[in-house]
Amino acid sequence: MPSPGVRVSVVISYHLDGRHLHQAVSSALHSSSHETEVIIVNDGATEAKANLYLRNVRELSPTVRVIEQKNLGLSAARNVGLAAAKGEFVQLLDSDDMLAPGKIDLQIDQLTLQPRLSASVTNYLLCDDNGLNLRRDGEGIGCYDLSLDDFLFRWERGFSIPIHCALFRRAPLARIGFDGATSKQDWIFWSHFATEGRRIGYLPIFGAIDRLSPASMSKSFADMASAWMAAARMIAPLAGGRADEFMVAADKHAKDYYQPRMAAQGEETVHRHAPAPATTPIDDWASVARKRIPPDASPLISVVVPVFNHINHLPQCLTSIIGQRANGGVEIVLVDDASTEPGVHAMLEAFANAVPGVTLVTNATNLGICRSLDLAVAAATGEYVAFLDCDDALPDGALALVAKYVGPEVDYLFTDRYEIGEAGEPLRLARYGGYSWIHPSTDIRADLLDGMVASHLKVIRRSVYISAGGLDAAYEGVQDWELALRLSENSRFFYLAKPLYINRRHSGSVTVSDQVRQFWLTNVVRRRFSRSSLGRVIADDAAVAKGREACATLAAGNVPPDVFVMRSMRKFSDTQKLKSAWQDGKLCVYAPDASAMPAEFCIAREFNSYFDGILAPDEVSATYFVGYLWRRDALHLTADLVELNCGNRTGAS
After folding, report:
1. How many CB atoms lie within 10 A of CB 139?
2. Boundaries of each Glycosyltransferase 2-like domain copy (predicted)?
3. What is the mean pLDDT of the chain?
C-alpha cells in the first residue's frame, strides 16, 4: 500500500555518469509539487568520485535517500528501488537523464482524471552530453496507438518509449518488474505491460530528456544486436499465434539496422588512432630532488597540494614544485585524501621521504577538497600559501616572481594561467580568470561578483586564510570563489598579470566532470553576495513571491510595475543591466519568447541568480534551467500561470 504522505516515488538507478546525478535529481524535484521521495540505487558504482556525487545529491533535499548494492545491473537496481518505493505513483529515471519541470504534476492530473489508466507517457527530447542542444527524435510517441502491435512490431523501428517518459501507478509496475537478462529490458517490460492489457495514456508534452552520452553512443552494435535477438526470443511467447511472424520481423530489423552499423563500427575500430601514452611515473625522486633548496624553518611560501588520484599527472605536478625558488625556500605540504588509484599513496610517500621540506598528511577517509585544504594550510608554516591541484603544475620560476610582489600590502595575490589538454597540448592563455567579458577594474569585489577572476595561481596570506575560517564545505566545487568573495570585503588583493600556473583541462577534473552542480552553486553564491554588494533590501522569500506575481502578470499579457523584465539575454554584458536594476531596488524577471535560442538560455542560466522569477514559454525552455537554478521555485511555466489566472478569474466571478 502507498505510504501516507508520499505521493510519488522517483527511482534513480546509478552505476555510471555520476556527474549528471545533480541534474537528474534536481529535475525530479522540479517535476513534482506533491510529496515526493527520491530513491537512488547505487548499483556498485566504481567511479572515483561516486561517494562525492552521492553525498552532494543527498544535500539537495531531505527526501533523497540512497540504497547501496553490489553491481547487479540496471533491471535489478530498478527492482530494488521499486521494492523500497512508498508512493502511489512511481517515476523511473536513469542517472544521466532528466525530467521536464512539472512533468509529474501533469501526469498525476491525467491519471487522477482517468482512473482506468495504469500509466501516463509523454513525448521526449534528445540532448547532447552537456545538455545544451535539445532536439526531437523523429515523430515521437504521439502518432502511435500504444497497442501491443506497436511494442511487438514497431519498437526501435520509429517507435520507442524511454522509461522515464512514463509515470506509473505503483501496483501494476511492481507486479511486472524488470528482467535483467538483456540490455533491452525496456522492450521486454513494455511488451509485458501491453500484453496484460494495461491502459497507457499519452500526454502531449515533451516531459522527458534522453541524454546521448559518449558511453551510450560508443556501445558495441554487435552486443546490441545480440541483446536485441535475445530479448526478441523472450518476448516471442507474448505474440501468441503470431510468434513466428514476430521473430521474422525482429530478425529483419537486426539485419537492416544492426548489421550495417556493426560493419562500419568494425572499420572505425581498425583505423582508430592510438591513445596518447600516459606519463611515466618517476622512480628515483632523490635524483630529481638534487636541484631543490630545502626551506627555512619559517619559509615565505608553502605550496599545498590536495591529492585524490590522478596518478598519470601527479609526477609532473610534484616535479614542477621541486625547482621553485622563494625567500627562505619553498615548503611543500601534500594531503592524500584517501586516493583510490593504486600507486598514488606510494608515490607520495616516496616523494616525501626523498625530498627535503615535504610534509605528507594522510586522510583515513575521503574528506573532500575543502577539509583537505584546511588541513594542509594548518600543517603549513609559510607566511603565504600557494594552492596547486595535483593534476596541474607550476612553470619554472613562478614562485620566485611571486616572492617579488607579496609583502605587507598584499593578502591575496593571483595570476593568469596557461590551460592545457589531457596530453599536455596547449589550449589557451587565460587572463584575469579567463573571462573574455571581464576586464580588470579598480573594484576587485565587483569583478569577483561577475566571475572567479582571482583564480590560479592564487597565493594567500596564511593568517588571513585561517582568520576567515578557511573554506566552506557547503560550497565545495566553487569553494575558492566563495572564499575570495568573503576575503574581498576586508583583504588586500593584487593581480599579477603573468601566466604562472598550468591548468590541465580533462574529463576527470572537477571543473569538467561536475559542471552543472558548479553552475548551481555559482548562482547560490552570487545571489548571497550580490545582496550586500548591490545594496538590495528585499529578502529572498519576498522577492521570489513577488517574482511569481510578476510572472503571472506577464503571462496574462500585462506589464508588472516596478519590475525590470529581461526579454532577451544574448551577451554576458547584459548582466550589468540586471545589477543596475538591483541597485535601483527593482525586481528582475526573465521572460524570453518561444523563439529564444539555446545560446541565450546558456547565458541566462549562468546568471539566473539575478532573477526573482523566470517565465518559461514552454517545458522545453524550462528544461534548460534544470539543475542550475539558485532556487527552484523561481521558475514558472507560462501555461501554469495562465491556468492559474483563469482559475482566479472564474473564482472571482
Report:
1. 11
2. 9-175, 302-465
3. 90
Q: Which domains does the chain have, with CATH numbers?
A: 8-216 (3.90.550.10), 219-272 (no CATH), 285-513 (3.90.550.10), 523-652 (no CATH)
| Block residue for cell numbers 605550496 | 303
Nearest-angstrom CA–CA distance, 540 and 633 = 11
Question: What is d(CA 631, CA 67) in angstroms, rounded to the nearest whole number?
Answer: 27
Q: What is the largest CA-CA distance in the chain?
A: 89
Q: Closest by alpha carbon to 69, among 4, 13, 137, 149? A: 13
CB 331 within 8 A of CB 380: yes
Sorted by sequence, the CB contacts under 8 Å of residue 490 that are 6+ apart come out as none
Phi, psi of 281 (to 5 degrees): -60, 150
Instruction: Determine the Cα–Cα distance for residues 162 and 29; give it in Å rounded to an integer.
Output: 19
CA distance 638 to 396: 56
Q: What is the pLDDT of residues 198-255, one digit of tens each?
A: 999 999 999 999 998 766 655 788 888 999 999 999 999 999 999 999 999 999 999 9
User: Which element (helix H / strand E) includes 277?
Assistant: none
- pTM as predicted: 0.86
**β-pairing, 493-504 with 458-461?**
unpaired
Question: How is residue 157 annotated by DSSP?
Answer: T
Q: How far apart are the first and last CA of the chain?
A: 41
Query: Which range has the worst mean pLDDT, 3-7, 43-47, 339-343, 644-648?
Result: 644-648
Task: Please report how the helices 21-31 and 515-533 are oriented relative to each other, as an axis angle in degrees rounded to 10.
Answer: 70
pLDDT score at 291: 75
